UniProtKB/TrEMBL annotation:
Cellular component terms (Gene Ontology): membrane
Swiss-Prot/TrEMBL catalytic activity: ATP + protein L-histidine = ADP + protein N-phospho-L-histidine
Molecular function, one GO term: protein dimerization activity
Pfam families found in the cross-reference section: DUF7134, HisKA_3
Origin species: Nonomuraea phyllanthi
InterPro entries assigned to the protein according to its UniProt record, in alphabetical order: DUF7134, HATPase_C_sf, Sensor_HK_TwoCompSys, Sig_transdc_His_kin_sub3_dim/P
Top-level division of the source organism's lineage: Bacteria
Entry keywords, A to Z: ATP-binding, Kinase, Nucleotide-binding, Phosphoprotein, Transferase, Two-component regulatory system
All copies of domain Signal transduction histidine kinase subgroup 3 dimerisation and phosphoacceptor, residue ranges: 188-253
SUPFAM superfamilies, sorted: ATPase domain of HSP90 chaperone/DNA topoisomerase II/histidine kinase
Residues of the DUF7134 domain: 12-148
UniProt name for this protein: histidine kinase
Gene3D superfamilies recorded: 1.20.5.1930, Histidine kinase-like ATPase, C-terminal domain
Amino acid sequence: MFFTRPSPLQRLFALHPLVLDGGVALSLVVGTWLWDWYGPDMGRPSDLLSSTLTLLANGPLAMRRRAPMAVMTLCAATSLMYHHLGYHIGLNSIALLVTLYTVAVHSSWKAIVASGAMAVAVWTQASALQPSVVLGSALISAVVLAICGLGAGLSTRLLAERTKQLAALAQQLQDEQEAAARRAVTRERVKIARELHDVVAHHMSVISVQAGLGHFVALSDPATAHAALGVISQTSREALHEMRRLLSILRVETTDEDGSLYTAPDLRNLPTLAERMRVAGLPVEIVIEGTVRALPPGLNLCAYRIVQESLTNVLKHAGTVRTKVRVTYAPATLTVRVTNEGGAAVPPGRSRGHGLIGMTERVKLYRGTIITCRLPEGGFEVLATLPLSASDEGE
């Protein structure tokens, strides 16, 4: 998972709402005071009463999200009184506009209509106090201003609701994808269990019968007992071979179409695989690190299949982008890393296919780990680590 540093604006909005709104309220209070006391004279001179009304009109903005309608009512009442007493008609209008926006975002339709009416009344009354302003023009201006505030709030509300719906749909899609992945894993495990049952049940039944026979005739018929032990030995070897084949090359056919014996591929076949991918248009580079040595067949096949599936995913989802396969032989582990440039080997939003699930199941057989991730600079990487100490158990 990759993290990006949030922008200053994102960090600002990530603050606690009370802190953010308190800062807005404080800024409006101080700004209005400064304008009221040191700005041009456009009404009754500033005094303690005007400062108190300004504080009552702007200070409650700190609580605007918790009680939007109450803040709206207080702001409208104090602004109405402020203008009626003859103070500057342009002051405290911003606070009223902010509370109108807040009501549109958080409150019911009844509250929205009521707050719009209050705002229109306050702004109309403030404009009508000027001798040169016609009442009709004041009313139109107030209605337009209220529509702007309510429109901005309703747009924000609609966007938030849509974002919430999209988040719910995304969560639902993720849950469905995870459920599909679990079902795919369950099917794989059922298939493994079925194969194990077929192999173990048959051979263990034979071994059980022959062991009982040998025990019964051990003293009376040593030759028969000896033959039973031979059958047990042969059957146990066959069972061990079948279980090794199952755990190491599950889902791999053992014969070609012409019926000839099929040899499972391993890391020695990587050059052939790379050449086949190059012919298909995928530029592949193979890098071998460490001392190459013989590996158990099952683990060797597991590593080969990881490379094969990864290259197939690159060609299918990322196209003909440069891809590097790095196989590292360490004293205790075998590491396979497949990295491609450009597009991701699994498109964003797409569920993990059965190929990735199959790779994960193969690696788990050998108590290894596999990591698939998108790279910050673009591209995709598959990193599998297989402990060589557990290879005999996986076999």
